[in-house]
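In the previous lecture we treated proteins in isolation. Real proteins rarely work alone, and many bind small molecules. This record shows how such a complex is specified: first the sequence, then the SMILES for adenosine-5'-triphosphate.
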Amino acid sequence: MIELQGLTKRYGDKTAVDHLTFTVRPGVVTGFLGPNGAGKSTTMRMLLGLDSPTSGDVRIDGRRYAQLSEPLKHIGALLDAKAIHGGRTAYNHLLCIAQSNRIPSHRVGEVLETVGLTAVARKRSKGFSLGMGQRLGIAAALLGDPEILMFDEPVNGLDPEGIHWIRNLMKGLAAQGRTVFVSSHLMSEMALTAEHLIVIGRGRLLADTSMADFIEKNSRSYVRVRTPQPEQLMDVLTAAGHTVVTAGDGAFEITGTEAAQLGELAAQHQLVLHELSPQRASLEEAFMQLTAESVEYHAHGAVTPGGEPMPVAPGQPQWQPQPPPQPPGGPGQPPQPGGQQWGSQWRNPGSGKGR
Ligand SMILES: Nc1ncnc2c1ncn2[C@@H]1O[C@H](COP(=O)(O)OP(=O)(O)OP(=O)(O)O)[C@@H](O)[C@H]1O
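The predicted 3D structure, ligand included, written as tokens:
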């Protein structure tokens, strides 16, 4: 278990991590999400004792990292896959780590097998692709057979097969009862991997919720309808008890009903429809809404053909979320009933630090 209590890190005037309080529990994959510069890496570094908190505390199974006598047997981490001595072979790299941490050398072969690098075990890692480097970093994290695993953007540089592999690896480790904490700035990737979510923005906690809850609250489905007779259709829909939101382009958005029902209703009143389409808001959109106020830098982002942010190498300039589209009610309107801003329902009351 990982426990953060009021964890804060300042660099001069800059508050990188701002009173973070949350717990990462065993048995599930916990996703750690936030836009670039949100403070994910700083948090992870403090967890490993690589940075000291300005205030607050972080514990691994009840102890600070520095208090762990054989830390790699408690927590394994992949922070920067490039932090490898390129002149060493993969096998020797892992053997050095094993020997200096009193880990039996037979673990080296085992973890190389687990990550699929057995065939290149005697090759120098400087010739490795980014994806192979990620696998070697993951092998090092697994070496001490720790109960807690932490991965910082582990899918960076992996091809689709590699992404599939690491997704299953993380789920498998969690299924063994381990604590798996994985950072990403890709909501869509986390939706396939994590059961629990911690979302931060500008160092502050924005959400601490189960993925199921996040999906339920954000996969808002509605039916989009366009008609050349908007006033008449509005009257018919309102009389039938539907709540109608008018979109920016004049289309109607109706929640809580099916397209077929709306089509029949329009036909009964001999109203012409130019569009009748079921819609579902994506999780990526929900994540961007939640973190929109927290995005530090806006850039012209590279996206994949599917509209996903393009994965990039650690240390390279990364994709930044763009300001999200206005919610259906128009600028300043909450996209959900109740007048709350997105994300407010997941804030951890214990953190005492909502936005
Ligand atoms: N050593 C440092 N000195 C000054 N500022 C720092 C230092 N390390 C991090 N920061 C700043 O703290 C903030 C949080 O950075 P951090 O790298 O933890 O974010 P992140 O969520 O991991 O981002 P990314 O997804 O881009 O890796 C950023 O504004 C960053 O510029």
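Summary for your notes: Confidence is low (pLDDT under 50) at residues 298-355. Residues 79 and 152 are 5 Å apart (CA to CA).
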